[in-house]
Amino acid sequence: MGNVAVFHTGIAAGILVLPTALICGQIRGIPFYWRLIDCSFGVFGILPLWLAVRLIKQLARVKAGPV
């Protein structure tokens, strides 16, 4: 279960891409639609990490056996 913390950190980083892209993109004068593309990297990056967390937790339940 120690690996879950690594995935949670990645999910947090993906979430933080959104405000970073929007705020820093505004400061640098990047067009809004490009900033949305940058935000999509965070959103689509979260999906496989979330799936991996679900699978790790499912594997932990299977390893634990019936209660």
Give the domain tally: 1
| Tally of separate helices | 2
The assigned structural class equals mainly alpha
Q: Quote the average pLDDT.
A: 91
Low-confidence stretches: none
Silhouette = rod-shaped
* Oligomer status: single chain
Describe this structure in words.
Helix content is 88%, strand content 0%. By secondary structure, it is mainly alpha-helical. The protein has one domain (3-64). The longest helix has 33 residues, at 32-64. The chain starts with a helix and ends with a helix.
Offer a few descriptive terms:
67 residues, mainly alpha
How does the SSE layout of this entry go?
Layout (H helix, E strand, L loop, with lengths): L2 H26 L3 H33 L3
Helix pairs in contact: 1-2
Quick description:
The protein is mainly alpha-helical and 67 residues long. 88% of the residues lie in helices and 0% in strands. It is built from two helices and no strands.
